[in-house]
Amino acid sequence: MIDKCISCSKKIVNEGVKFKCPSCLKENICRCDACRKKAVQYKCKCGFIGP
Length: 51
Fold this sequence. Notes:
6 strands; 35% strand
């Protein structure tokens, strides 16, 4: 399965990061390198908003 960035929905092929939501620790958060560098916000299904 190819992951998609939670911020921009771009397919993550090589560069990116995947981690558990720091609030609920249940949902996987996938972010592309570009959104991480720009500190684009993301929102988990639990309502947590991260940088």
